[in-house]
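Reviewers of the previous submission asked for a worked example of the structure-prediction workflow described in the proposal, so we include one complete record here. The input consisted solely of the amino acid sequence. No template or homolog information was supplied to the procedure at any stage.
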Amino acid sequence: VEVRLVMSQADDVDRTLLQFDVVDTGCGMSHERAGKLFEAFTQADDSMTRTSGGTGLGLTISRRFAELLGGDVIVVKTEEGIGSVFRATIAACSVDDDGPVDDPADATPVDSPATVATAASSLAGYRILLAEDGPDNQRLIAHILKAAGAEVCVEENGKLAMDAATAAHAQDHPFDVILMDMQMPVMDGYTATRLLRSRGYREPIIALTAHAMPHDRQKCLDAGCNDYTTKPIDRKLLVQTILRHVVTDHVTEDALRTLRQPDSGSA
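From that input alone, the workflow returned the following structure tokens.
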């Protein structure tokens, strides 16, 4: 399969876009398949004997990255047996901007309903441990969390995440929440969560997984996770889920501290 990248500049009504056309000379697909291709877990070849691998998340994640950078990803044309052309656009810097962005995770997204919702649900002051082995997901999720004000520590497998969480707890400065990918190399999220709970770790752990069936959610809860959210990430839902647990946890701790204090009005 040959993939050629063609870059050009295009102007729309309000701004200048950088346009990238990816010409894929592979198997192509039908127009019906193309219309569903950006749905999570959908592939051009979804037969049991398919020759192409993957989970059907690549284009969905690519579109989310492009949207964060003020653009989009679309299928320009496709034909079975011939190939496909995919077009990605991102907002170009103007002469008044600070310059190009080296890392997409450092980009400031164009205001959108999802971005506004994330900003409104502030995570300022919270420390979050993200256990995730995929570099793209690391950047995307960390960007969402940092945009909402959180301090983020990223570890690439369950063993490193468990060690980081244990060390932070021993220093009496635990993470407010752990976002735990359940499928990672070295040590998966299920094992890391079970080991942390067996050692008395009580802070919230939220599972991140591409599996969305009810029994998958129960498997995460049985391992010791407090909650569960699926990939691809819904920005607003992710922040709301985190807030639901960290706010409740902090309120409970504040209440316990108040109960432990002697009554200043007593004799």
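The first strand starts at residue 3 and ends at 11. We consider this example representative of the routine output the project will generate in years two and three.
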